[in-house]
User: Fold Proline--tRNA ligase from Clostridium oryzae.
Amino acid sequence: MSKNSKKMVEAITDMEKDFAQWYTDIVKKAELIDYATVKGCMIIRPYGYAIWENIQKDLDRRFKETGHENVYMPMFIPESLLKKEKDHVEGFAPEVAWITHFGEDKLSERLCVRPTSETLFCEHYSKIVQSYNDLPKLYNQWCSVVRCEKTTRPFLRTTEFLWQEGHTVHATAEEAEEETIRMLNLYAKHCEEVLAIPVIKGQKTDKEKFAGAKATYTIESLMHDGKALQTGTSHNFGDNFAKAFNIQYTDKNGKLQYVSETSWGMTTRLIGAVIMVHGDNNGLVLPPKIAPIQLVIVPIAQHKAGVLEEADELNKRLKSIVRTKLDKTDKMPGWKFAEYEMKGVPLRLEIGPKDIENNQCILVRRDTLEKVTVSLDKTEEIIIDLLDKIQRDMLQRARKNRDEHTYAVKTMKEFEEKIEKTPGFIKAMWCGEKECEDKIKDETAATSRCIPFEQETISNTCVCCGKKAKYMLYWGKAY
Amino acid sequence: MSKNSKKMVEAITDMEKDFAQWYTDIVKKAELIDYATVKGCMIIRPYGYAIWENIQKDLDRRFKETGHENVYMPMFIPESLLKKEKDHVEGFAPEVAWITHFGEDKLSERLCVRPTSETLFCEHYSKIVQSYNDLPKLYNQWCSVVRCEKTTRPFLRTTEFLWQEGHTVHATAEEAEEETIRMLNLYAKHCEEVLAIPVIKGQKTDKEKFAGAKATYTIESLMHDGKALQTGTSHNFGDNFAKAFNIQYTDKNGKLQYVSETSWGMTTRLIGAVIMVHGDNNGLVLPPKIAPIQLVIVPIAQHKAGVLEEADELNKRLKSIVRTKLDKTDKMPGWKFAEYEMKGVPLRLEIGPKDIENNQCILVRRDTLEKVTVSLDKTEEIIIDLLDKIQRDMLQRARKNRDEHTYAVKTMKEFEEKIEKTPGFIKAMWCGEKECEDKIKDETAATSRCIPFEQETISNTCVCCGKKAKYMLYWGKAY
Assistant:
């Protein structure tokens, strides 16, 4: 924190002392959310929502560039429709919200608020897909879904949350598998290029896969407290749902075939990931690409002649190249520094009478608090360079931190020691049996995160039972 | 319809014979929607949703330019919260969807799915507004809402629909009134400039105003069948909700004051308006500004050497200036003509071997079916001019049609004759009493649409009771 601002703001909890409280302090003090009366729901405030809009814009562009189209399905699912695929209803029924009445009228069949929309998409596809000419269908939907949660935390786990859900149908199993992996890669690129969050790509074990899926792929990232976060998932359903919903098409030879299906989703939990990967004890640190304000202009001694005029002039010039805000309120500069540091604005520009005299201004990076004095003639190019550099540096720092907290272990003793003393990702060999997965979870509270695409051989035997190893797995305590 | 396509497509119902069936045919055949299993809900298909995205983009830009910020409130409202403002709960309680259980657990208090979010915004404002420095708050939300409807029609009246709802709080009654009118004007501009739909701006009578509002302003437009459609509304709540929810701020003199509040909304019903104002017996006619495809390229004799290459080349050139689609499927050109006419694509570009020889192509307007032959060297500028002209002409034609179906009447006999024989807007004088409003509705099935801002004096007496007239009103049978 800038020296002169430290004393002026109510401090947030130290992240090293109480990470959960630090997180809660940030979401409130950076004005990302407010709590709602309805238990487990949150209000996303303008600054939080603007971050989500920037995430949406980037994802939506990527979806459209890969041929996907947006649609909107109803938010209600009749009970009988939810029940059509057995594993699916078992996975979701315990946590759905049930509608019983419209006004005073009791419904003949209960409706639930969508916890996810596989069943609605399947029913629609069963009507509109007839021939191989109709395939593939590559649909996506932006909406909110409801899954009742007992313990909630803003962005990470709430009863209602915003997300996108892609649902596609294909002529062949191969095409569905390609799509599933394509979307996982798209998610990984978004995380690394836009959110500056490095991810591990891999497959979920059978125990951890999605209700009704043949295979679930995931991207996993590591938070600052050493806990893992599932950042996005992509599911290959094979023909499970196609058979339950009778989605068939006539192939080129006139033969009836079941379609193969995928779904994939990312949620507002991404904002939670950004907070926990990049934030520090001064507050939020936002990657420039999603920052609602990329540069804040703070006039110094703004009552002096010419300062506000010059600040206005600069703001006009700069706002055509970056998202700027000029703060002309009569708060002390130190207050303003602290406020925009809390909000994670990537760059601060200070300009006062002396700077104007010297045809210069001062730029301060949020991520490193480094200061540079720059000529007013070169401000534009330096700002663009700096924002680029901040974006790159943030990814590099996050990757370094992740790698430093990733441990290859050969024994359960090492496993337990690491997860207890220096939490992070644990890489360990696994025999492939659910018994070992359960046992490790019982003993360490760590869950299997994924079977990474990039396999390594740490040893030849399962870390738990000592039998022949099949895969290297990532483990971690998770949100 | 183009001569050579007429025979190839299954005709839609003639709009002059059965307007309701014509409408239903279009929404299905232009692939805007599909019906969902849940009664009264609809699936918005990719082509329909892309129209909504273009409408959203324009409105959202206008909202942001006028200082509004987007937020997201929960979709659930506890019963006790809904009941806080008396008129409001009476207006909405009969049509809300009630949640009683989360999974197996019975809730201690029922929740409804938001029919609108005044109560949620008010509760939030009561927490975040303390001083005059916090005002105004200009928030907007994009979401779906639920109001159970017995009789539904796609886009016009459905149990769930998509919309935006603006909710603002202000220090003074004057500022709230200014905001209410500002947003009504913004809506009117969007309708005229983007949807090419002329509107009448005015105030709702007390009988027709929103549940809990002090004043409701409306824009009303006229459909091709002579029925009126309420296209957008803007409400001034005064301090009704502020008092019910205790939203107070400290003014500059340190005195506690209630805020003044507004709300305003537009919905997917706008798509219904576009269909019913511009559509014809060949299908949809879309204003270029919201058309997902502004220009479709149809190659003629595409099996011949060079045709597809030239079409590809043209498509590459044109897609940087307009939203294009090149249809290379092996359907007959006549089929393609009919399909894109049904979908309302504003311009069709035909290119075949002879055209290539003569360095030309053919452009066909959807709205007039006029054809022009243009040099390939000038295609870009002519397309831009034509799209502009189509946009303007569509508004002019709609205005002409509206004016030709707007009748000033002095007696109930004239009123009844007009509304029966040549439906449209009826302008008539009114004494201001609810009794006359009720009586006219009973006798003619027409409802008061608005007290227009632009008043005229048709006579000095109320068309119904003959007493002294207070206002000139617009009347109509309405959707």
Remarks:
- Chain A touches chain B through 53 residues (CB under 8 Å).
- The domain at 19-70+126-278 of chain A is CATH 3.30.930.10 (BirA Bifunctional Protein; domain 2).
- The radius of gyration of chain A is 25 Å.
